[in-house]
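Incident log, entry 3
Record: Cyclase/dehydrase (145 residues)
Problem: checksum mismatch between cached and fresh output.
Input:
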Amino acid sequence: MAEQSTQSIEVDAEPSRVMAVIADFPAYPEWAKAVRETEVLDTDAGGRAKQVKLTLDAGPIKDVYTLEYDWDEDGLGVSWHLVKGQMQKAQNGRYALADLGGGRTRVTYTLSVELALPMIGLLRRKAEKMVMDTALKELKKRAEG
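Fresh output:
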């Protein structure tokens, strides 16, 4: 299994608001710059997305892939793994939310990606950090907006 990268950010929004943004896959192209298209393929018994097909266009990195999501019962986390992809062999990720009180939430993003093409570990971790940093900043802006 590939190594994981982890980053956190504090958001001026309640955890329920942050999770609502994370769970609203059809809106991702509106705020997640690299996400061009999303399609919810399956939902769980609670109506939350179970499988989502994403079309990514981050300049030189383009991919169409499907992720499967597992939502925490307490509403404070979601994990996912790659079902199929073109450029990726594996992806495991997680958003974990912590209620800081006063309408603030700490969002911790953990990500591990294994590409179909070999990549030096240092470069892969740098790319993961860039993806995570951008995703967290965009999530913060959307949740606070």
